[in-house]
């Protein structure tokens, strides 16, 4: 004959478990009541009800004292673990609600990621030190795909973007500069352009890039040609080559700023080439609160808190 299943005890509330734990800790229903803001009779009724619900006694009553039973002692450790777990859950909920934990995954061009983002990330993590930040660099098509499919949370991209499934907020406008050694023959000029640079060796980030094509067009319009002696793919490398006297690098002023240190100097490049960068997210999702905080930090960091992009020309 199949035995009937044992009757399960009724659910025990969190307040009752907390009261039981406090009695075990303090040794007194009165003391437990003071901790929980309850009267001693209320604590006694709560424990009595809990004992009825679970089907066994937790305490002996000895002249007004509560002495734990063997069953009560066996239950106490598990109750402590359960309450500690609940406290951790409450702490996690609080951390999430105040943006104290989480992760932001972003993509940015290599020179932007190494020369510009560290300051922004440091400012953000000073406010939210337990947030994890992941920074990657990918091609423009891959970046768009990863944003649209929400593999990453956000990106910093150079405008224009031309993608209906992305939302772009312009954060920065930056001009262009020539980076050259301070002892270069052209370093004494206040500005430099195709007419002055035409015969000088030039370091380029690549004629196939957007900026490379724009520079080449400006030289053609003035009937000049660039004397390209070296090509690289990051602003830091271009500045390093210029620092060794290889040639003049024509660069985005914002990205060149961290690397244009002595013996290098910068001179405005004219006609000016404007570079605009945007904070980009998927148009298909509502921004989580943590990402909203990061966007606001970016606005403040780049001076775009008023809604107008920062002008770094």
Note down, in words, how this protein is organized:
This protein has helices spanning 14-26, 29-36, 40-54, 70-97, 110-115, 117-127, 140-148, 194-197, 210-221, 235-243, 253-256, 289-301, and strands at residues 59-62, 65-68, 102-107, 131-136, 154-158, 166-174, 176-181, 201-204, 227-231, 248-252, 264-268, 275-282, 310-312. It starts with 13 loop residues before the first helix and ends with a strand. The strands form three sheets. The chain has a six-stranded mixed beta sheet, with helices on both faces. The chain has a five-stranded mixed beta sheet with strand order 9-8-10-7-11. Helix content is 42%, strand content 22%. Helix 2 (29-36) packs across helix 3. With 313 residues, the protein is α/β, with parallel strands linked by helices. The protein folds into three domains: 14-97, Arc Repressor Mutant, subunit A (Orthogonal Bundle); 102-167 and 282-312, D-Maltodextrin-Binding Protein, domain 2 (3-Layer(aba) Sandwich), CATH 3.40.190; 176-268, 3-Layer(aba) Sandwich (D-Maltodextrin-Binding Protein, domain 2), CATH 3.40.190.
Give a short summary of the structure.
With 313 residues, the chain is α/β, with parallel strands linked by helices. The protein has 12 helices and 13 strands.
């Amino acid at each position: 004959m199949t035995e009937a299943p044992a009757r399960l005890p009724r659910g025990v509330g969190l307040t009752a478990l907390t009261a039981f734990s406090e009695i075990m800790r303090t040794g007194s229903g009165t003391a437990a009541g003071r901790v929980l803001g309850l009267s001693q009779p209320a604590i006694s009724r709560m424990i009595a009800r809990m004992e009825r619900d679970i089907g066994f006694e937790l305490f002996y009553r000895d002249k007004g004292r509560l002495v734990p039973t063997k069953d009560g002692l066996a239950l106490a450790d598990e109750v402590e673990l359960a309450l500690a777990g609940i406290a951790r859950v409450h702490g996690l909920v609080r951390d999430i609600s105040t943006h104290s934990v989480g992760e932001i995954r972003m993509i940015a061009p290599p020179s932007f990621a190494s020369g510009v983002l560290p300051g922004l990330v440091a400012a953000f993590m000073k406010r939210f030190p337990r947030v994890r930040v992941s920074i990657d660099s990918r091609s423009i098509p891959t970046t768009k795909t990863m944003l649209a499919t929400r593999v990453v949370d956000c990106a910093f991209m150079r405008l224009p973007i031309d993608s209906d499934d992305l939302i772009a907020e312009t954060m920065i406008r930056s001009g262009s500069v020539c980076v050259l050694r301070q002892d270069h023959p052209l370093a004494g000029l206040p500005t430099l352009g195709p007419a002055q640079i035409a015969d000088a060796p030039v370091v380029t980030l690549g004629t196939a890039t957007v900026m490379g094509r724009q520079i080449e067009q400006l030289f053609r319009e003035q009937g000049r040609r660039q004397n390209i002696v070296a090509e690289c793919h990051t602003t830091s490398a271009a500045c390093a080559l210029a620092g060794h006297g290889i040639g003049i690098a024509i660069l985005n002023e914002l990205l060149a700023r961290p690397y244009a240190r002595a013996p290098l100097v910068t001179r405005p490049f004219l006609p000016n080439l404007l570079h605009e960068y945007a904070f980009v997210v998927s148009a298909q999702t509502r921004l989580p609160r943590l990402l909203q905080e990061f966007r606001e930090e970016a606005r403040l960091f780049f001076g775009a808190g008023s809604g107008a992009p920062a002008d770094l020309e």
